[in-house]
Specification:
about 200 residues
Length: about 200
């Protein structure tokens, strides 16, 4: 993976007229592991998301959910114990690929992003070797959105298709938060949070 901002990010910054402001943040996205505070934050997390490719090469972003401790971080890696539903397109994701992980605590409005390389190290267990790790500001994270009570990981897929149903469109229009998965040919995959008042994402 590349260091600092990749070419796509620099193009967006240039178009938005914020190259100088972004340059001051460039050290934040250089290679680095987790600080002790970040390790404690990830250890106590109940929710995150992972962006990766399935065995057909398609990019997906899967929610990661579990009791505190299901994410087991160290300074240079994060172990994911279970967490991906068996009905999810990434339930059987291949090893040896770049991935992006975001961990969010809605009650404290904290979030941490991790980029790295994925290895499958056991049944239902993944290891992300960290290339980049950094926190983001709380802007656009609605407080208290996360509801206690985790859904079961063994659940059936209720719909698969290439169009949105009316219920899907209604859910999108009412949503105040999205997890976005993106990819770059040299910098790898990334998972990031987007938020705003309901309706900030339009369906066309």
């Amino acid at each position: 993976m590349t260091t600092g901002f990749h070419r796509g990010e620099l193009m967006v910054q240039q178009r938005a007229g914020v190259l100088d402001a972004a340059a001051r943040l460039e050290p934040m996205v250089r290679p680095g592991g987790l600080t002790p505070g970040a390790v404690a934050f990830v250890t106590g997390a109940e929710f995150g998301a992972l962006t990766a490719r399935d065995r057909a090469g398609r990019l997906w972003t899967a929610p990661l959910m579990g009791e505190p401790g299901f994410l087991s971080p160290e300074s240079s890696s994060v172990r994911i114990h279970g967490g991906i539903a068996d009905s999810d397109p990434l339930a059987d994701l291949p090893s040896g690929q770049p991935v992006g992980v975001i961990v969010i605590d809605y009650s404290s409005r904290r979030r941490l992003r991790v980029n790295g390389q994925l290895d499958r190290i056991g049944e239902g267990e993944l290891l992300v070797s960290i290339t980049q790790a950094y926190g983001n500001c709380p802007q656009y994270i609605p407080r208290g959105q996360w509801r206690n009570g985790l859904p079961p990981l063994h659940r059936r897929r209720v719909y698969a298709g290439d169009t949105l149903r009316d219920s899907d469109i209604d859910q999108i229009r009412r949503a105040a938060t999205f997890i976005l998965g993106t990819t770059h040919p040299a910098a790898g995959n990334d998972a990031s949070h987007r938020g705003g008042p309901p309706g900030f994402v339009a369906v066309t």
